[in-house]
Amino acid sequence: MEELLLTGKYNLKSMKPVDLTNPTKEVIQAYFENAFEINESLFTGLKDTSVFYKCPDRLRLPLIFYYAHTATVYVNKLLIAGLIKERVNFEFETLFETGVDEMSWDDTENYRMGGTFKWPSIEEVTVYRRTVRNLILKVIADTPLVLPINQESPWWALLMGIEHERIHIETSSVLIRQLPVEFVQIPRDWKYAPYSAGEVVTKNPMIHVGGCELTMGKPMDFPSYGWDNEYPEFKTKVPSFEASKYLITNDEFYKFVLDGGYNKKEYWTTEGWKWKEFRQANHPTFWVCTKGCKGGCGGLICDYSHCRPEVFYGSTANETIVNGSNGVSNGVSNGVSNGVSNGVSNGVSNGVGNGVGNGVGNGVGNGVGNGVGNGVGNRVGNGVSRDNYKYRAIFSVIDMPWEWPVDVNYHEARAYCAWKGPEYRVPTEAEHHAMRGNQLPSGVGVQGDVVFNDDNKSNTNLVYGSSSPVNMYPPTEKGFHDVFGNVWEWVADDFNGFPGNKTHFLYDDFSSPCFDGNHTMMQGGSWVSTGGATSRYARFSFRRHFYQHLGFRLAKSVNVDDPLPLRLINTPVFVLGQGVAERTPSVHSQNIEKCYHPTSNAQYYEDDETCLSDIMELQFGIKDGNYLTQLYDICKTIVWKYNINNKSVVHFGSGPGRLAFELTKMFDQVLAVDFGARYIDAGKKLQKSGSLTYKVLPTGSHESNKCKTVENRNIKIPDDIERQKITFKQMTWIPNELHGFDLTIQDMIDRVSNVKAWLVRLWEITLPTGVVAIVSSTGWNKDKVQSIIGHRLGYLESVDFSYTATNGNRKDAVVTLWKRK
């Protein structure tokens, strides 16, 4: 596989991120090649090329997508930033641009998982990756390095691509771990961690942390790359709390499983129980038993179960967990076999240990069992048999490493906390920062970030190819182990931006769509995290049913009357096809109502019924000076004056689609795009039935006029409108799949959070013979727009008009017209 996949060296050794204080091209190039090589090297763990086309997770894509995806992101971002002028392969840069973000565990499979969909060959994708690699090396060599490199620098796009690739090293590692073990092989030099660090973990005490004030977030001028959600700095107070010294281990979680925790509804939230029932989960997903448990694979392997006797008894543990020397398995000596003393080895007598001769055991020393103390064997403790479970590492099924942290989703973590007692929960993001102890101030530069430390004692950066014992690395000054590294750690906060957070135009939707109250945060990084993911500033999230190399620890408040330093989202978010989901607070607290905040994604504010009422009235209710009627008349003039073809048109900011329905009179294909799910939902209903009743709410009804009468009005689309010509799409950015338009109408810049992000690709999606029309009533005139798009689009003219707003006042607007240079 190495010869087929690698475009450079085989490499599993990560390097530090780029220090932007005074970077050189040599350092930037080395950091790029390092990420490119590690990502490709990881895929050599697949047994053959057919595995690239299997679906490890029914809600994710086959691995061929992830192998190609990171290369296409470089091209897409560098093109927007102006570092390159032409694409490499538009077909690839469209097909492999966008993955899937499932809304829930029971979503339907993506069409690209089906057996009829044909992906490009692995040989074609490797050629593409090699071409992109060489292109980027040329960009680095030929582009002047103008300092400083900050968020306004075109070099930021290259760093974005590198850090994105490093994120997907982790993504792909989880998917590989979800594959049938028969489909994978151990790559060269891959090394699992020891089962035990010597001193057996028998207790996990709660450690007290005194109240404090701390600073989270990253200064805007900090000299390293950061994702948008990391900025800006944010001060908060943390009352006294307690948290467990270690992450919860497989041994601790086993007691929850043994006690029937997966079958006791009282421990689970409503959402969590529904997930548990749907997945028919009986234990963590990376535990292996013999009972044929339902797997999560998709496509052609959707019926596969990891929990089969042939997998369980076909363990390759002793072939792969050998990290010691002198014939000693996994760093263990003293003639002790796999955690059992008295010469009895893992259920085998005659002094031979689990496939290892000469009385040397698999991962234990001094007669102490692998995760079980007092001379008790690896699978027996307190009289309870542990023979029932093994553990799926990324490339192997191995004996259960009881002292490693358990990998669970948030539902399972929350259920465990409830089982321990009503006072227990996972820590909050702010508490996680407090557990780190004193950190250098950000003002000292990169030395203030753990990721740049030469003496970084944590299980990160592929030091090991697995989790490790929870007591293997030293604690923070507060006494907590694995605050960074080993596995990611669930924290209780909803993912949200800090006050003052802004998106970046190169990747406007990297974080903000996840500020929806349905994504729970995680902190600290894992054994496979590299680059910025191991930074003190890193902030990531997943949906609560999601699996990652991800665990948790316990926390509890010292004084239940203290305000919990927890940030939950109270903004209702409408999900297309589902509506507004009912949310369960991530933790139990008597002060939970004080923990709610609005989302920092202002675009979600339009997802309420008042905004829907306003836009329905603006488009369909107002008769005199109707906004869309006048805009349609301007479009007719544009088509005639500039002799535009009538094949295709796109309307960004379509709302429920009044203009889209009108444009079917002129165009064969009409695409209606909006970020607002309620608007697209209304448009789809109108398209399907031809009529719709909507509520007319008084202006300000959600505040001052709640008691006023609500009117119902009916819309009917004329029978001569060919509704089937329209396609409605909810989108949070302009992807490559949108292209080839004769007329592009950008009518959304007055409503979006990042105007530049919605302007920079208009030139590419519009045909050379076509026209771009940009509409604004908030001052986005020729000069302001030209400063963003003038290098790609030439100005034609401006058309002014006025319309009647929903409050009855007249407003002025302008349409600026542009054509590709």
Automatic annotation (TrEMBL):
Gene3D superfamilies: paralog of FGE (formylglycine-generating enzyme), Vaccinia Virus protein VP39. Residues 205-285, 398-556 form the Sulfatase-modifying factor enzyme-like domain. InterPro entries: CTDL_fold, OvoA_Nterm, SAM-dependent_MTases_sf, Sulfatase_Mod_Factor_Kinase, SUMF_dom, SUMF_sf. GO terms for molecular function: formylglycine-generating oxidase activity. It comes from the Eukaryota. PANTHER family: GENERIC METHYLTRANSFERASE (PTHR23150:SF26), SULFATASE MODIFYING FACTOR 1, 2 (PTHR23150). Belongs to the sulfatase-modifying factor family. This is Ergothioneine synthase-like protein 039. The lineage of its organism: Eukaryota, Metazoa, Hemichordata, Enteropneusta, Harrimaniidae.
